[in-house]
Amino acid sequence: MKRKKRPFFSSKRRVWLAALAVVTSAQLAGLYGIDQFLRVPALPAAAKTPEIKTVKVSAIPADAALVSFNPDRRFAAYVSADGELVLLDSEGEKFREKVGHVTFLQWLGDTDTLFYLTQGSNLSGYLLRIHAPEPTRIHTWTGHRREIVNTYFSPYLEFLYMEFRKGNITEVYKYDAVDGISRLPLGDAWIEHIDYDDKLDVMKLTTDSGEVWRYEHDHLYRPDSDSGQARPRRSSGADYPAGTQEDKG
Fold first, then answer.
1. How far is C-alpha 31 from the geometric centre of its chain's CA atoms?
2. Which helix (H) or strand (E) holds 89?
3. Which helix H or strand E contains 135, and what residues bound it?
4. What is the DSSP letter of 47?
5. How is the beta sheet containing 191-197 ordered, strand by strand?
6. From the centroid of its chain, how far is CA 209?
7. pLDDT single digits (tens) 94-130
8. Could you point out which of 47, 48, 108, 214 has its C-alpha 20 to 30 Å from the C-alpha of 205?
9. How far apart are CA 171 and CA 149, in angstroms?
10. For 98, what's the count of Cα atoms within 13 Å in the CB-facing half-sphere?
C-alpha cells in the first residue's frame, strides 16, 4: 500500500503561518510599547494638605476694642473691654496681660509675631510672638503727635519699617534685632506713597512734589542732594532707645 505524499505547499503554509504569527506578535508588542510610551502618565494621588486650624470668630468677644487676625487666621489678637491684650491660636489663649492703652495691632504676615503700639504720654512699639512669655519693646517715641500710617517687613522679619505722620512731615523708622532702630533722613518731607520690595529690601518713596527717593543698603538716595545720597541717622535726642525703663504708655 502506497503512502500518500503530503502536499508540499501544506508544510510551506504552516511555516508561513508560524512566521506570520511571530511577526504579528512582535508588531503587537511594539504597538503596545509605543502606546505605553505615548500615554499620559497617571498622576500620583494628591498628597493631603494638612488642615490649618483657625481661630474661630466666636472666640473674640463682641465688645473687643481692637481685633487682628493673621492672613491664614491661625492666630488672632484683640484688646478686651478692660484693656487686656489677648493672643489666641486654635487651642485657646496663649497670652493675656494689661500692657497699656493699645492703639494699633498688626500680625506681621503669616508669622506668629504681632506688632503693636501703646499710647500714653509717649508712644511705644512692641513685638510679641504668640508663645513668648513677654513682649519685646523696640522703641519709645516722646509725645503723642505721631500716627501710624503703615508697616513694611521682609518675609523672615529681618527688617521692620514703620511709617508715621507727625504734623506735616513723614517719619520712617527701620528696625532690626541686631542694630536696633534707625530713622530714615527724610528731613521735613511729606511722603505720598511708599513701595517696598521685601525680597531685595529696597524702598521707593514718592514725595508730594513727585520726586522718587530710594532707600537701600542703609542709604537714602534722592535727587535733591549733590551726591544723590543722604546718610541715614540714628533715632536719638528726644526718643528713648529700647531697653530703657521710660514710660511705656
1. 52
2. strand 84-89
3. none
4. P
5. 191-197, 202-207, 212-216, 219-221, 229-230
6. 32
7. 999 999 999 999 999 889 999 999 999 999 999 999 9
8. 108
9. 10
10. 5
- For the chain, the residue count is 249
- 79: its cell numbers: 484688646
Q: How far apart are the first and last CA of the chain?
A: 130
Radius of gyration of the chain (CA): 35
Contact 168, 175 (CB under 8 A): no
Q: Which residues, 6 or more positions from 223, have their beta carbon under 8 angstroms from its beta carbon?
A: 211, 213
Place of cell 519693646: 137
Give the Cα separation of 217 and 75 in Å (integer): 33
Per the listing, cell 493672643 goes with 87
68-138-122 Cα angle (round to 5): 85
206 Cβ neighbours under 8 A, 6+ residues apart:
191, 192, 193, 194, 195, 212, 213
User: What's the pTM?
Assistant: 0.72
Residue pair 157/144 in contact by the 8 Å Cβ criterion: no
Question: Cα(214)–Cα(205) distance, rounded to whole angstroms?
Answer: 6
State the CB neighbour count (10 A cutoff) for residue 25: 10
> Positive or negative, the Cα torsion across 74, 161, 153, 206?
positive
Residues 6+ apart with CB under 8 A from 57: none
Instruction: Give yes or no for a contact between 90 and 125, defined as CB atoms under 8 angstroms apart.
Output: no
- In 3D, which of 78, 147, 76 has the Cα closest to residue 112? 76
Q: Tell me: the pLDDT tens digits for 197-228?
A: 999 999 999 999 999 999 999 999 988 665 55
